[in-house]
Amino acid sequence: MKIVVVGSGTAGSNFALFMRKLDRKAEIIVIGKEPTMQYSPCALPHVISGTIEKPEDVIVFPNEFYERQKIQLMLGTEVKSIDRGRKVVITDKGEVPYDKLVLAVGSKAFVPPIKGVENEGVFTLKSLDDVREIKAYIAERKPKKAVVIGAGLIGLEGAEAFAKLGMGVLVVELMDRLMPAMLDKDTAKLVQREMEANGVSFRFGVGVSEIIGSPVRAVRIGDEEVPADLVLVATGVRANVDLAKAAGLDVHWGIVVNEHLQTSDPDIYAIGDCAEVIDAVTGERTLSQLGTSAVRMAKVAAEHIAGKDVSFKPVFNTAITELFGLEIGTFGITEERAKKAGIEIAVGRFKGSTKPEYYPGGKPITVKVIFRKSDRKLIGAQIVGGERVWGRIMTLSALAQEDATVEDVVYLETAYAPPVSPTIDPISIAAEMALRRLR
């Protein structure tokens, strides 16, 4: 069997490795535009800040590692089209036939049509080349004021990186809060306060209408001209669907796939940022543009091609980050999204400490849990705190994936030791607050 993978990022690289473990004889070819295989895009802001020393450090395995697994690499190669009738991928270096084709073509940074967005000193943050260009610009011009357009994960992590380098940072966001797709206004405010305490300022409900100067010297926000000598455009990403669309595959926001990650052509799979899957709460189609989702999709696609009866489950899009030492975890639906979707919910909130009150060193933690009234099931959570958010958001996400009810969370068996955690965990107390609204 000849398996061709288009895309050498997280999804494509992991698929090739999973596939090799399952089938030692298959011919596996990975075609990618970039000169290297998988690296961690989530680590890129930490390269800018200097926490990670150099861009090459985020490359997971060298190309030689894949070649030793008898995975053929065609890097620095662009796929022009797919001939489904002949089962051939047409590249700028010739044709490559396939039995099974896996599209792991990822996503691209969305750049809005702002006047001056192509000026010198304006960047996106999506690739190793982006990081190299930003670091070179900082080294040469030593910017003092940065403006970040967009307050999603990448925008906030970029803002943190610039602030750690000593720049004054302004984040401009069209919505009324930061992380609007992941956090409600009450939890977003907690993150905003921490970032403001570390020198990052915000402007909400407005957009940048013009970037002035090349190299950039200012941005225009409404009628106001704000000084800036570096601009980061972090207004989200868009799935790469052009190749699939031209091949006649079903495409919406992403490439439409079934539970086995097959496209409308059963011999072609789509995985990673480009694949459109199912939302676990609403049942609607959605994108799951997270590294963890890419790896799970890669595993499911490889196992299905190998003949196993496996499916990719609907997603809650569990995510976590850390900004200036504050951990932020989230999954599922927000309170605002639930209302827009017409889902009646019960919300529980608790603000407490990560350790018993009598034990020194506890850090503040705020837990918000969201349950659907109709079946009392956990469908979302947001946690903001000084430590151990990761374990708690993972626990809640795992419970939601197993259809846990509010009672399941209230009476959850947890662990206790004064240096680590309180006798009743904050997640159970938050669920108790929600249960009171359901009685």
Automatic annotation (TrEMBL):
Keywords of this entry: FAD, Flavoprotein
Domain Pyridine nucleotide-disulphide oxidoreductase dimerisation as annotated: residue spans: 324-423
Any coiled-coil regions, as ranges: none
FAD/NAD(P)-binding domain: residues covered: 1-281
GO molecular function terms noted in the UniProt entry: oxidoreductase activity
Xref: InterPro entries: FAD-bd_OxRdtase (IPR050260), FAD/NAD-bd_sf (IPR036188), FAD/NAD-binding_dom (IPR023753), FAD/NAD-linked_Rdtase_dimer_sf (IPR016156), Pyr_nucl-diS_OxRdtase_dimer (IPR004099)
Cofactor annotation: FAD
Family per similarity comment: Belongs to the class-III pyridine nucleotide-disulfide oxidoreductase family.
Protein name per UniProt: NADH oxidase
Organism: Thermococcus thioreducens
